Amino acid sequence: MKGDDVIVFLHIQKTGGTTFGRHLVQNVRLEVPCDCRPGQKKCTCYRPNRRETWLFSRFSTGWSCGLHADWTELTNCVPGVLDRRDPAALRTPRKFYYITLLRDPVSRYLSEWRHVQRGATWKTSLHMCDGRTPTPEELPPCYEGTDWSGCTLQEFMDCPYNLANNRQVRMLADLSLVGCYNLSFIPEGKRAQLLLESAKKNLRGMAFFGLTEFQRKTQYLFERTFNLKFIRPFMQYNSTRAGGVEVDEDTIRRIEELNDLDMQLYDYAKDLFQQRYQYKRQLERREQRLKSREERLLHRAKEALPREDAEEPGRVPTEDYMSHIIEKW
Questions:
Q1: Mean pLDDT of the chain
Q2: Containing domain of residue 23, as a range?
Q3: Which is the catalytic residue, given 68, 115, 299, 324?
Q4: CATH number assigned to the domain comprising residue 49
Q5: What membrane topology is annotated for this entry (predicted)?
Q6: How far from each other are the two terminal CA atoms of the chain, in whole angstroms?
């Protein structure tokens, strides 16, 4: 916080990132809290000792690298954006700590469908990769007109170009490894494997990631990773898949097939998340044991100290002195 490190939040659609992003700017106990003014979408999050930001996110720096920028975009864009914002910081190299949230792929997919059904498009996303945006042929739209509002789940699943499919893997992988959005660059099977392995590698390299389904553990892991505390606890909303969307088993299987890479990534992420959580818990228990031991030793040391009062009892007045006092009285 007082150095040059920057937390970079990679916000994947429909993973609970908006709520988590607000936690980062409104709910962290800081020496200098983020300045969030009514009516303004962005907050100012400065370090305690200078006017430089420590957080790169939607609610602090805005969509500076494009709407819902992915790993490929952020890693190429963030350093330059911050150099322009805080030129004084050029003197010292920064460390970037990437963080993100992941969600159960079926729930996330259904949530995105509902969001698109209500009129969301994210059409202003840049999808920059290797210095350019994809051509209309590389990334065809799934709908005609201004948006895809009112689309059925079947229509949503039937579009082969739907970016909702395996969104989490694509947004965490290094897309330049597979020729960006050019699907003819390498065979489909090889492309899928490269994307999945890249997403796993980048997830492992992240300082922190949370899981939407485990809010309290996510909060705990963030606090222990960055030595920061949240003011209010995270809330866990245990609802059915994507807010009460009723889908049959065949449809769920179809969604899982469309998101096979995300399913594999999520299984991997759950295991890694649990390992990190258990490791931090073990560290905390060890620290508590050491602290208790030190307190016991300190208490015993105090108990063993010689008592000066017992060695030098207070002076008792003599009988003559007492008689003299009484006579005068």
A1: 92
A2: 6-286
A3: 68
A4: 3.40.50
A5: Single-pass type II membrane protein
A6: 72
